[in-house]
């Protein structure tokens, strides 16, 4: 499939009409000789080894697949990544030159809308994610039980998925149209997604753009934009008690929620698609010889 996709892509870009080519992710190789080629990715397969307990034997691929992935990255004149940990993987695991790996970040898909004073005072925790298990949903429910024992009026809203949860104070919304997601950010006071494996996590930067403090895990790209004690709290994956403690700290202190939310908003300013494309354009023009 890799080779078939690569040939199909080459048929398109080999026509003498392009200044460069770009592909998303690495399930094929669209590069052709003589045409500058770029990749934009949020993950590498070997970046999974950065997660505690993950070994190469756990990866659902063969050595031949990894070699094709390596070829794809190294045939690009530059690889744009969403986060520092993926950039580190390209250099350390795939042998890409450091100067050819550029962190261009990722963007949010909902407009920024700071919460009102009334919302900041509420005690609604928001989870946004499709993959309930991978994104730590069961850990959040366990932590939420501990939270409710201390703060009975705390609530939890889950959107994106529909787990079989009937916990008091928890509202399961399920899938919603993308243009409605902002409504849920705007009516939350804390964003929490204790994910166990996360290439990037656009929901985090969307929540931050709504000036929400974040409670998350210290995996993948998350440490790039959530600094423990600054704009939220980071715990280890599976640390239910640490998760509950962080949520209780924020729920008990509206002033802290507001302060951390303001810092989230400041961090989120670089996570826009306009900023991503500006970074890409600057580096692409440099490599293909375009001069203003």
Structure, described:
This protein has 292 residues and is of the alpha/beta class. The protein has 2 domains: 2-107 and 272-288, Rossmann fold, CATH 3.40.50; 117-268, Glycogen Phosphorylase B (Rossmann fold). Helix content is 39%, strand content 15%. It has 11 helices and 10 strands. The protein has helices at residues 2-13, 63-74, 84-94, 117-121, 137-150, 181-186, 202-209, 222-225, 240-251, 254-268, 273-288, and strands at 21-24, 37-41, 78-81, 101-103, 124-128, 155-159, 170-174, 190-193, 214-217, 232-235. The strands form 2 sheets. Strands 7-6-5-8-9-10 form a 6-stranded parallel beta sheet, sandwiched between helices. It has a 4-stranded parallel beta sheet with strand order 1-2-3-4, sandwiched between helices. β8 (190-193), α7 (202-209) and β9 (214-217) form a beta-alpha-beta unit. α5 packs across α9 (240-251). The longest helix has 16 residues, at 273-288. The radius of gyration is 21 Å and the shape is elongated. The two termini are 40 Å apart.
């Amino acid at each position: 499939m890799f080779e078939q996709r690569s040939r199909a892509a080459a048929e398109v870009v080999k026509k003498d009409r392009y200044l460069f080519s770009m592909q998303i992710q690495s399930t094929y190789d669209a590069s052709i000789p003589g045409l500058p080629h770029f990749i934009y990715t949020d993950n590498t397969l070997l970046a999974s080894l950065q997660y505690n307990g993950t070994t190469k034997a756990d990866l659902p691929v063969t050595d031949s697949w990894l070699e094709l992935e390596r070829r794809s990255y190294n045939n690009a004149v530059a690889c744009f990544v969403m986060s520092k940990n993926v950039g580190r993987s390209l250099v350390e695991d795939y042998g890409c030159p450091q100067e050819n790996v550029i962190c261009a970040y990722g963007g949010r898909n909902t407009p920024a809308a700071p919460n009102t004073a009334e919302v900041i005072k509420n005690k609604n925790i928001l989870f946004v994610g499709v993959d309930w298990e991978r994104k730590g949903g069961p850990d959040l429910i366990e932590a939420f039980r501990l939270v409710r024992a201390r703060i009975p009026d705390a609530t939890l809203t889950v959107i994106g998925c529909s787990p079989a949860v009937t916990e008091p104070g928890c509202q399961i919304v399920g899938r919603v149209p993308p243009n409605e997601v902002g409504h849920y950010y705007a009516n939350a006071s804390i964003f929490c997604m204790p994910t166990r494996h996360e290439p990037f996590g656009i929901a985090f930067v969307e929540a931050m753009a709504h000036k929400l403090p974040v409670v998350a895990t210290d995996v993948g790209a998350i440490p790039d934009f959530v600094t423990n004690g600054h704009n939220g709290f980071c715990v280890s994956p599976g640390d239910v008690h640490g998760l509950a403690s962080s949520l209780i700290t924020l729920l008990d202190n509206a002033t802290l929620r507001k302060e951390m939310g303001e810092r989230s908003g400041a961090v989120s300013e670089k996570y826009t698609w306009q900023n991503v494309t500006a970074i890409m354009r600057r580096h692409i023009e440099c490599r293909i010889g375009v001069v203003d």
